[in-house]
Amino acid sequence: MHKKVLLAIKVGLLLVILFSGYKIVSYYLADHDFTSQHEVLKAKLPVSSEAETLAGEKAGLEAESVARTLADLRDRYPDIIGWIQIPGTKIDLPIVQGQDNAYYLDHSYTGAYHPFGEVFMDKANQPDLTDQNTILYGHNVQSGQVFHDLEGYQDQAFRDAHPTVHIYTPEGRQDYQVVAVYIASPASPYRAPNYSLTDWQTFRNWVAERNLIQEDLPADPSHPILTLSTCSDTERLVVQAQRVT
Fold it and tell me: Keywords of this protein's UniProt record, alphabetized (predicted)?
């Protein structure tokens, strides 16, 4: 009986080791596949790595070129509606929008299964960024993929070094400046596409009580904002930015 127990323990440990090894290899392969797939798109998209400093005519020409490329990409991948770039971070990715807020949690822009998912816009939002509040979701992958770099915004110095978010769509480029960072629950009121004046003032005060940086949401409820949402343990890390162009 004693030998059988020892054998069972050894078999159990071996299975744990094999399963752990499988998970590690699977994670590595998923990370490599995610990088490779998105490098293919980046090679097609004429977005400068120095987009933060582009201005005037040069920025306008780039935005026009990106808009044409995005329009072409949508012919092949209809759910691609734009591109998000935060200079100085790894966030330089396509934006998709599905029929619900679940599909792109575990599918890539190609429609194939992928555990990292994609950056995706809330199904209730207008893809042309005409809502007061445009919400984008992305996983917080520990290897640094998708929205992991949003973690840095909990520090004021990081925000000051990376204040701007660029959103490209077939309609052009919009720039946003980060003004709020906080931890929220999935049920918190940060995901409404539009707010009434009263609701906006209530929400703005709610954010001010939780904001981890020394900035404020715009007082005008009609001023467009961008909301980036990712996981932080069982809660959500929310980064919000106001449109500046």
Answer: Hydrolase, Membrane, Transmembrane, Transmembrane helix
